[in-house]
Amino acid sequence: MWMQHEITLPPKARGFHLITREVLGAIPEVERLRVGLLHLFLCHTSASLSVNENADPDVPVDLEMALNRVVPETLPYVHTLEGPDDSPAHMKASLVGCSLTIPVRAGRLVLGTWQGIYLCEHRNHGGQRRLVATLHGEDA
Question: Is the pTM of this model over 0.85?
């Protein structure tokens, strides 16, 4: 089986946001698979996707703080027409990445006990974000 959905996420504040439930809600076909893969692709250049801890709310705060230290807004960026957060957002998105591939087994995503899918919003006002979710696998 091959299945593809487009998922539109509502605007989120700058930072790291768990979207695992939103993703699963948009692709109920996951439950039909015995084994497979879910590929997520984010169609934007100033946000990214990550798998990280989903239990402690301090983790996304620390992720945002650390990434801001790695890519500060105070560098002499040339690409500034869309605001001072735009070029740093592109740098962060390149470092973190725009896609994920997650295994599926017995109708569930194979994530670790404390893992979840994050949308990493690197703009102050990024707007809606669009994901393409491609599911491939064998029916149960």
Answer: yes
Span 38-73, pLDDT tens digits: 999 999 999 999 999 999 999 999 999 999 999 999
Distances, alpha carbon 55 to alpha carbons 64, 81, 102, in Å? 16, 38, 19
Number of independent structural domains in the chain? 1
Angle made by CA atoms 4, 34, 97, in degrees to the nearest 5: 45
Q: Give tens-digit pLDDT for 3-39.
A: 999 999 999 999 999 999 999 999 999 999 999 999 9
CATH number at residue 64: 2.60.120.460
Cα dihedral across residues 17, 96, 47, 91: positive or negative: positive
DSSP track, 42-108: E--SSEEEEEEE-S-THHHHHHHHHHHHHS-TTS--S--TT-TTHHHHHHHHHHH-SEEEEEEETTE
Domain that holds residue 134: 2-139
CA atoms 93, 99, 101, 106: torsion sign = positive
